[in-house]
Amino acid sequence: MPSEALLQVTELTAHYGPIQALHGISLEVKPGELVAMVGANGAGKTTLLHTLSNVHKASGGSVIFDGQEITRTAPHKIVQAGICHIPEGRQVFAPLSVEDNLLLGSFTRRKEKAWVAEELERIYQLFPILQEKRRQAAGTLSGGQQQMLAMGRALLGRPKLLLLDEPSMGLAPLLVAEIFRVVRELNEQGVTILLVEQNAKAALGIADRGYVLETGRVVLSAAADELLADEAVQKAYLGH
Ligand code: ATP
């Protein structure tokens, strides 16, 4: 195993009953990297992230995180180990205020008042709009603002690795650009990120490296700018 990887996935398989959704996925994410996994609807992107978090059980292969095998580790222990998964659809708690939604991310240390205040301050600096709307119900935020809230909540736990599932889903183009700018900024601040996306152009536009997933298999992997310039990728995913 190349010891420098933060996340090392080897020959990972997953099934839904008799249907095989992942056919031996291997990938790695090094500390500090922003890696994009792009693929069409149904390629297996969401299943991959669910399997990494062990919300969906792997049927074979291995996941090593920070030197520890976590393939069969309970999901809450995976969170404690430092992996934070932001699912598709964001899942903020609509009736709760923005600040209360953020505080849900601090559950393991919520009694440490000074720490919580400092973390909130850090998140508000990253996302000023959340500070502005901190007393508003989360359900009143726009889709892009809810995505920022989901990211802010995840960051409160200071994860070592962020798994981000389709943050651009359902957002207008201007907001997509804003969300990807924020994802890039988080990475520049030192958060390691595995981003899965159907929007290949935007994802590869901010990533260091990328993988292309087709029907549960990695069919290409390269530096993100090489994938953006690749003719087959352009035809299949970039609308050229
Ligand atoms: P999307 O962008 O639509 O979320 P995806 O790339 O994330 O697509 P997955 O949702 O991981 O793809 O689906 C991968 C494959 O597994 C698809 O063929 C899908 O039909 C199948 N699948 C997903 N969830 C289930 C399920 N609960 N039961 C049976 N098959 C499923």
UniProtKB/TrEMBL annotation:
Full protein name: High-affinity branched-chain amino acid transport ATP-binding protein
Membrane-crossing residue ranges in chain numbering: none
Presence of keyword Cell inner membrane: no
Organism: Sedimenticola thiotaurini
Any single Pfam family the record assigns to this protein: ABC_tran
Family from the record: Belongs to the ABC transporter superfamily.
Origin superkingdom: Bacteria
Xref: PROSITE patterns: ABC_TRANSPORTER_1 (PS00211), ABC_TRANSPORTER_2 (PS50893)
GO biological process annotation, one example: L-amino acid transport
All residue ranges annotated as the ABC transporter domain in the record: 7-240
Xref: InterPro entries: AAA+_ATPase (IPR003593), ABC_branched_ATPase_LivF/BraG (IPR030660), ABC_transporter-like_ATP-bd (IPR003439), ABC_transporter-like_CS (IPR017871), BCAA_Transport_ATP-bd_LivF (IPR052156), P-loop_NTPase (IPR027417)
GO MF annotation, one: ATP hydrolysis activity
